[in-house]
Amino acid sequence: MTQSLPLEERLTQLLTHLGIERAHWAACMPRDWQGLVAKQPESIASLTLLCPMGINVGLLSSESLPVLCISGDKGRSAQETQRAAKDVPQAKIVTLRDYFSPSWADAAKDRGEEVDRAISEFIIGLHAKLQPASLTKGSGEFAEIVYSIHGKGQPLVLMPLALSPSQWDPLIARLGDEFCTITLSGPHLGMVAHLEARAQSGYMRVIDTLIAEIGLAPGQSILEIGCGPGAIVRRLAKKTAGQNRIVGADVNRYLMREAAALAKRDGVAQWIEFQEGNAEKLPFADNSYDVAMACTVMEEGDADRMIAELTRVTKPGGRVANVVRSIDMPRWVNLQLSAALKYKVEAPGLVGGNVNAEGCADMSLYRRMHAAGLCNIAKMPQWASHHGGERLQYMQDRIAGVLSADELVEWRAAIAQAQAEGSFFMTEPFHCAVGKKAS
Hints:
With 439 residues, the chain is an alpha/beta fold.
């Protein structure tokens, strides 16, 4: 199986392997389902989006595909989701009342009964019924996609939720009473694939600038917290080739497993240690590392506590490095737009993502690092430029989701013109800093 095989091809090959022509699908991340809708729509009987990380309104609006959208009613992500779903004529919208549902929400655990009822009623209420699938309970792998089967009935394929495929676990028994549920995972799906795609984008130039500012010397140790599937520590390992001790830590066990597998695939596993660890309470002794870093982690927790922990585990004279998304800096959108629309799409924080109340996604990063006792802080606001690929598509879809119908027409026409001219790109803002721990 080649690495370049499109995801939709892998998915349809898996269905064929399982003897299924069509299935109901449930997902969170647009990258998981967009290819199927665009290129293999005959394989989809319905699509359920649970607390989605974006909705491709243009794609769904052009199809007659039955769509169910489930989200909370609190927080920016929920508001964007509800607004976008209303622009999909055939979408049924189910709102989880009084529920905060950012991308990392655990709705299947928190509101399982409501989610189960919404999915079951939606699928059972459809006019067209699928041939029941009678597959043997168990797990397997095909086309580099791992699958797990439970229950009997119409086939329902569960793509990973934002944090991991295991987030579906609280619902598997319930859904299995009505459907043959097929839960998918692996490096080509969900957050793992999303983060790996970002590592192939202009974002890594931001990281390279941060690493250069750190000035890592041979023999020094480095810790990355919130390493996810390990793109940054793998990059460091390839660069240092065993000259440095490299440790990646993350609170998500699933991501840790994928990180170890990807490190082995890239031939750098011998140079990286992976350890489960909460960024707000690191399982490391004081003064353990020469460098401690966190990249786009401070947004989703208590930023001050994370910085304090990074500082605690860093040796005197060592460096603490941070990157956070920015909701207070504008982006640049290289499109010919009306002044009003250009002002709107470039405005700070339009689609900057969710930030916890105690999180950090703005210039307060520099003040917070100073307050933690760090000195000689290099303050480096940066912009990652995206000229193509999944990250550019993700950003333009997020922006499209907050535009009015008239704005959307102008937006799409401007993109088409810029693509024809070869001039389309967008930038994504970040705050970056490297500070020294006092000796």
